[in-house]
C-alpha cells in the first residue's frame, strides 16, 4: 500500500480560469522520497500543501496511510506529518527548545519526555543541545536555523515529512552539507517524504522518485532519477533535465560508490622523517594526516617533510583546501574540485572521519561512460 496516494486530483483556485493541478495521480510507497519539480508556477507547492490540507483539492482523492485525508480532522492529519519550509517559520520570541517543542506540547507530552526528545533531536541534526537549546532564532546562522526546522518537524516522529524547498535559501556549501546530513538521517528514519524543489540536481540527489510537472500541474513523468535521465518520457522532460546529461550522470553516483578507501595516511604525532620514508616507499608525494579519532587534520607534502626532518607532522601540515562527504554526489565533488582548482578531495563520514578519496579522473571516467549509471532505482 502506498503511503501517499493521489487519485485524479485537481485543484482550481476560486476565480482561476484554469486548474493549478490537473487530474494528478501519483503513488509514493512507504520510505520513498518523492521530489516534485517543474517550472515556476507548475503547481509544486499546491500539490504538497494538499497533502496536509493547507489547500483542499477541488476534485479527486488523496490517501495517506490508506486513509482519505478529507475524512479526518486537519489537526489530526497534520500531527502525523512533519512540515519543513524554506523560510523555516521559527517563532522569534521562543527559544530553540520551545520551537522544537511545538508539536510535543500540542500533543500534551510530559516536560521531561519533551526535553529529552529535544536534546536527542538537536544532536541528530548536528547542533550541540547545551550550546543551542536556550538561544533564540536570531542568534543562529541560516543553516543552523534550517537544522532547527528539520528537528522541529521530526519532533513527534511523524511517518510522513513534507519539505518545501527546505534548503533553498542557503549558500551552496552549507546546502550540500545539509543535504548529505539529511540523506544520512533518512537512511535510518525511512520516512515517506514529499520534497519540493526547483533545482534538478537537488531532485536527482535527494529523490528516490522524481515527479516532473508541467505548468497547470500536469504530470509528465514519475520515475527513478536514473530513468528520468536515461529514458525521459517526452521532449518536455528531456529539455527540463537539460542538455548536459553526461554531467548529470554524476548526480546519480555517490562519492561512497567510487572513492578509494585504501588510503595511506600519517598520524599527527609522527615525525617528518617517518612520513617522508612512508611516502617514498609508497611512491606518494603527499599524505593525509589524521588524529587519534581518525579526524582529518590536513596533509603533508613530501618536500616539506624532507626539508624539515626534525618536525612533527602537526608542525608542517597544511590544511585541506576542500573536503567532501560519502553521501555527496560525484557532481557535488567534481564541482568542488573545479571551483578550487584541485584534482582530488578527501572524503569524510558523518563523524568527520577520513574514509576515502575521490579524484577528478574518477569523475571523468563516469562522464565518459556510454550508459548512464543505474546505481539507484526506485525500488
Ligand atoms: N491562493 C491562490 N489563489 C489563486 N491562485 C494561486 C494561489 N496559489 C497559487 N496559485 C496559482 O497556482 C499556480 C501554481 O502555484 P504553485 O505555488 O503551486 O506553483 P509552484 O510550482 O510551487 O511555483 P514556484 O516554483 O514559482 O514556487 C500558479 O499559477 C499560481 O499563481
Q: Outline, from the CA principal axes?
A: globular
**Major sheet description:** 6 strands, mixed
CATH H-level homologous superfamily name of the largest domain: P-loop containing nucleotide triphosphate hydrolases
Mean pLDDT: 89
- Report the C-alpha radius of gyration, rounded: 24 Å
Question: How many separate domains?
Answer: 2
Ligands (ions, cofactors included): adenosine-5'-triphosphate
Strand content: 15-25%
CATH class of the largest domain: Alpha Beta
Q: How do the strands line up in the largest sheet?
A: 6-7-8-3-9-10
Head-to-tail CA distance between termini: 14 Å
Based on DSSP secondary structure assignment, what is the total number of beta strands? 16
Oligomer: single chain
Percent helix, as a range, is 25-40%
GO cellular component, one term: membrane
InterPro entries: AAA+_ATPase (IPR003593), ABC_transporter-like_ATP-bd (IPR003439), ABC_transporter-like_CS (IPR017871), CBS_dom (IPR000644), CBS_dom_sf (IPR046342), Gly-betaine_transp_ATP-bd (IPR005892), P-loop_NTPase (IPR027417)
Protein name: ABC-type quaternary amine transporter
EC number: 7.6.2.9
Q: Which structural traits does this protein have?
A:
2 domains; ATP hydrolysis activity; four-stranded antiparallel sheet; Rossmann fold; alpha/beta; six-stranded mixed sheet; nucleotide-binding; single chain; globular; 379 residues; disordered C terminus; ATP binding; CBS-domain; binds adenosine-5'-triphosphate
Amino acid at each position: 500500500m502506498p503511503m501517499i496516494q493521489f487519485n485524479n486530483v485537481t485543484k482550481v483556485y476560486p476565480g482561476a480560469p484554469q486548474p493549478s493541478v490537473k487530474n494528478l495521480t501519483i503513488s509514493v510507497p512507504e520510505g520513498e522520497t518523492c521530489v516534485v519539480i517543474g517550472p515556476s508556477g507548475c503547481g509544486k507547492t499546491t500539490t504538497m500543501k494538499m497533502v496536509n490540507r493547507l489547500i483542499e483539492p477541488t476534485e479527486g482523492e488523496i490517501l495517506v496511510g490508506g486513509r482519505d485525508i478529507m475524512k479526518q480532522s486537519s489537526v489530526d492529519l497534520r500531527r502525523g506529518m512533519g512540515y519543513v519550509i524554506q523560510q523555516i517559520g521559527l517563532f522569534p520570541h521562543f527559544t530553540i527548545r520551545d520551537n522544537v517543542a511545538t508539536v510535543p506540547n500540542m500533543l500534551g507530552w510530559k516536560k521531561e519526555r519533551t526535553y529529552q526528545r529535544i536534546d536527542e533531536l538537536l544532536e541528530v541534526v548536528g547542533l550541540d543541545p547545551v550550546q543551542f537549546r536556550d538561544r533564540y532564532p536570531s542568534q543562529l546562522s541560516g543553516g543552523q536555523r534550517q537544522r532547527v526546522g528539520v528537528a522541529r518537524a521530526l519532533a513527534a516522529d511523524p511517518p510522513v515529512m513534507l519539505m518545501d524547498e527546505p534548503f533553498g535559501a542557503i549558500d551552496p556549501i552549507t546546502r550540500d552539507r545539509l543535504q548529505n546530513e539529511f540523506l544520512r538521517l533518512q537512511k535510518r528514519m525511512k520516512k515517506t517524504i514529499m520534497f519540493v524543489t526547483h533545482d534538478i540536481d537537488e531532485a536527482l540527489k535527494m529523490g528516490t522518485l522524481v515527479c516532473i510537472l508541467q505548468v497547470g500541474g500536469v504530470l509528465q513523468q514519475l520515475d527513478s532519477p536514473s530513468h528520468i535521465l536515461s529514458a525521459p518520457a517526452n521532449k518536455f522532460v528531456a529539455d527540463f533535465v537539460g542538455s548536459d546529461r553526461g554531467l548529470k550522470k554524476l548526480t546519480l553516483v555517490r562519492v561512497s560508490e567510487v572513492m578509494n578507501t585504501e588510503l595511506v595516511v600519517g598520524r599527527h604525532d609522527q615525525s617528518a622523517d617517518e612520513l617522508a620514508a612512508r611516502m617514498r616507499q609508497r611512491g606518494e608525494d603527499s599524505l593525509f594526516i589524521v588524529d587519534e579519532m581518525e579526524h582529518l587534520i590536513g596533509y603533508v607534502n613530501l618536500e616539506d617533510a624532507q626539508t624539515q626532518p626534525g618536525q612533527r607532522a602537526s608542525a608542517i601540515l597544511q590544511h585541506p583546501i576542500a573536503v567532501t562527504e560519502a553521501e555527496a554526489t560525484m557532481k557535488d565533488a567534481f564541482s568542488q574540485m573545479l571551483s578550487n582548482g584541485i584534482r582530488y578531495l578527501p572524503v569524510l563520514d558523518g563523524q568527520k572521519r577520513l574514509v576515502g578519496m575521490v579524484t577528478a579522473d574518477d569523475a571523468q571516467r563516469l562522464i565518459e561512460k556510454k550508459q548512464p549509471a543505474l546505481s539507484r532505482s526506485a525500488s
